[in-house]
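I hope you will forgive my troubling you with a question about protein structure. I set the record out below, with my sincere thanks for your time.
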Amino acid sequence: MVFLSSLVVAFYFGTQLKTDFFFFAYNLVVLFSGFLSSLNASVLIPEAMRIRIRRDEKTSMRFLNFFLVLYIILTVIIGVILLIYPQKIFLFISNFDSSAVAVNRKLIFLLVPVFVLMPVSGLLSEILASYRFFTIPMIIGIINGLFSILFVIFFHSTLDTLSMMLALVVSYSINLGILVYLMIRRIGWQFTLFDFHIEKRIWRNIGFAQAGNITSVLYSYAPIFLFSGLRAGVVTAFALAQQIASMPTVLITNQFSAVSGVKLNELYAKGEFDSFREVFAKTTNFLVFLLMPVSGILFLFASDIVAILFKRGAFNQESVEQCTVFLRLLGLLLPAIAINTMVARVFMATHSIKQSFWYQVCLNVALVVLIYVGVKEFGMNGYLYAMLTIYGLSTILLYYLANAFFPEIRYGLVLRHFFSLLFVNALIVAVLDQLNLTSIIINSYVRIFLGVVLYGSLLLIFNHFLKINLELAGFSRRIKQLIYKN
């Protein structure tokens, strides 16, 4: 639903300065909310689950309620400052000129309630996920997407880009009500319980975690800041390409890592390390096997995908070309992102905050430097080259980090599986690229369909002989036996 809302936005608005400003403003809120959400996943939820398992549920509630109130106070204070000095703040944090900021002043005002609602909803959603309510993020996404679609369709002519921001205010307000209702009725949450005494150990972990997360925010913020100073439409093209490329991460990686992350927390708290290793290895290998072909398809057919999804209404050929540049290379990051996400879950489950801090700082500082230099020297392509370089190196360097701190997860086996798949998928991409389906087949739908069929068939053939993924090889063998038997 969230992705469908992007299609509607592209149709009515295309890629222009006012959409650049909306996506810049919205991404700022997402980054800040993500900054707090990373604290939820790395410190608060694992600690709350530990308290729940080793002590009792009410003590866990007191602990989380304290941080819920802290989130509300913090976001309200920042929101009020933004209301008082909207123009000065946006001129400082972006490369937009004063006229662009002045025109979008009302949009900034509507941004403030979203700034408060998103992080609070995120914490409540994480709490429910720790009680195995894993569908909550999807429900939130459906409601956000539905309201965005309806508001843009019915109010784009009267409210312009304000319709998109107003949709977020309404949808997040509804989501907050649903989350509070579920917590009270389904798990008996008591919002009146508080514990103002938080151990120094936890504050120290929070300090390390968020110091590292600040660098993560900076590397995510760097491209939109730099792109806001380029030609009109680049920020929008980047945001739309990110949404396409991030769909496998949102729908596959995040869902599997969220479920396995809760399991990893439980297994580590109980000291069941063999099961801990098994959950990590199986989940990571499955994600890499699933996402590697998706990366190949996105790389081969990026232009067709963008044209099919967006090329209508105000979204013209120039917009397609801008978006395609981003999508081709952003798609290649998917397997590396999955591995990094699962290793991050190991850091969180084992409460290895200091180690996580130094890893984050080194990785993200390198990213920020490369992104800045890359964009200055090569424009938007420089960002993509920087991301591929750092994520590629990170996947390899995690081998040494894992061996030093988590030898029990046997990261070397995961890395071997990754490179085997990389070799096979690179061969398939090279074969399909040489076929040059674009010159043979005119229709984009048929071209993508045939490409996916050929890609899948070649992957199954390679896997049958090389036995890279044993589960899939076994499944293929059983299907073959059934066919010959019949």
About this structure: The mean pLDDT is 82. DSSP finds 20 helices and no strands in the chain.
